[in-house]
Amino acid sequence: MKTYVITGAKRGIGAAIASKLRLQGHRVISVDIAHADIHADLSTPEGRLAAITAIRALAPEGLDGLIPCAGVGPQQTPAARIARINYFGAVDLVIGLKDSLAMRRGTVLFISSNSAWLMPYDQTFVQALLDGDEDRAAALANSLDGQGVYGGGKQALLRWMRREVRDYARRGIRMNALAPGYTRTDLSAEVREDPRYREAMDDFIAGIPIGRPAEVGDQAAAAGFMLSEDAAYICGSVLYVDGGHDASIRHDQC
Question: Does residue 236 sit in helix, strand or coil?
Answer without folding.
Answer: coil
